[in-house]
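cron nightly-structures :: item 1 of 1
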Amino acid sequence: MNNNAAGISIVAFIIAVTASMAYYQFVYTKEANAKPQLPEEVLNPPESVKVSIIEGSSQPSQQKNFEPKEVRGSLGINNKIVWTNVDTTAHTVTTDTQYSDQISGPFNSIESLGIIPPQKTYEFTFTKDGEYAYHCEPHPWMTGKVIIVKSFV
């Protein structure tokens, strides 16, 4: 009699573990990794904000690097920021806080395109309001900030 109870317990345990693993793999993980549903205007805003990486930015004595140094965008209006490197040296746009956007991924030009060569651009679409400080990886004195606010339109 004891043998049957042990066998039934083992089978019940195996079924419970299998059901738990199936739920985790096919339901929980899928929902936990799902990207949020956002309005089309936030994903593809009609306007963008332009930032220039100005000539001479690689020199530590240069006071201006990102122009403008601080930019503001509104979700659904102009939450895409475009940096253009007009310097003769390559640069990066790298988050100070390891920020990774829920849709756009890591806020770091190195992750998506590497360094930004002269006369090329890097663009990033922010899908969440907040303040995002950044710098140039090889030239850490180059700093800037993006502020994204909710749109009330």
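cron nightly-structures :: done
The chain has a mean pLDDT of 91.
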